[in-house]
Task: inverse folding
């Protein structure tokens, strides 16, 4: 993981995840140096990324959630060529590989919903080698702690985080950062 990205995560362990224009406006005021963009389409994603970048923040685009993009490598090429995004978030290891080739920051998002998903984490990490992994849902501190110990890849936790205590528990479990769409958490 590049030094600038790691320092930004360590300096502001709460990541503003935005899912609409209102979130975009609020994230500009937050201390979070990293913003997860969880909405948009091929017509407006460059504008959304520009607004985030104008505030001096690192813009991470969740490819799977951008309307009009496919789940193929060309989607990564599109983000790289037509936006100023610093990196991508995706559930697809092949897209992580392509983003790494283009020198974008990479986050592999994993939904740990059962023991099979948990057991597949190591395999997915070996095949894609992302800069970070994001575990969802976050409110499983014991499971998150096990994943942090299992993985040499830094871990972010996200999903269902609604209180400062959630953030503190997750940081104590070993995550580098916590992502949340809840603006009240961004200003803790």
Result:
């Amino acid at each position: 993981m590049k030094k600038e990205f790691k320092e930004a995560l360590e300096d502001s362990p709460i990541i503003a995840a935005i899912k609409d224009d209102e979130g975009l406006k609020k994230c500009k005021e937050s201390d979070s140096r990293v913003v997860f963009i969880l909405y948009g389409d091929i017509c407006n994603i460059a504008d959304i990324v520009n607004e985030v970048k104008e505030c001096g923040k690192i813009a991470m685009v969740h490819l799977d959630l951008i309307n009009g993009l496919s789940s193929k490598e060309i989607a990564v090429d599109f983000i790289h060529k037509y936006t100023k995004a610093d990196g991508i978030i995706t559930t697809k290891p092949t897209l992580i590989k392509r983003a790494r080739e283009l020198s974008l920051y990479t986050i592999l998002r994993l939904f740990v919903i059962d023991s099979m998903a948990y057991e597949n984490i190591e395999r997915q990490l070996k095949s894609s080698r992302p800069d970070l992994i994001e575990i969802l849902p976050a409110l499983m501190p014991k499971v998150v702690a096990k994943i942090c110990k299992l993985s040499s890849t830094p871990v972010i936790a996200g999903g269902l985080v609604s209180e400062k205590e959630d953030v503190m528990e997750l940081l104590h479990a070993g995550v580098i950062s916590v992502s949340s769409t809840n603006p009240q958490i961004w200003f803790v």
Notes: The first strand starts at residue 14 and ends at 18. The mean pLDDT is 92. Strands lie at 14-18, 34-37, 58-62, 87-90, 105-111, 132-136, 155-158, 177-180. The two ends are 26 Å apart (CA to CA).
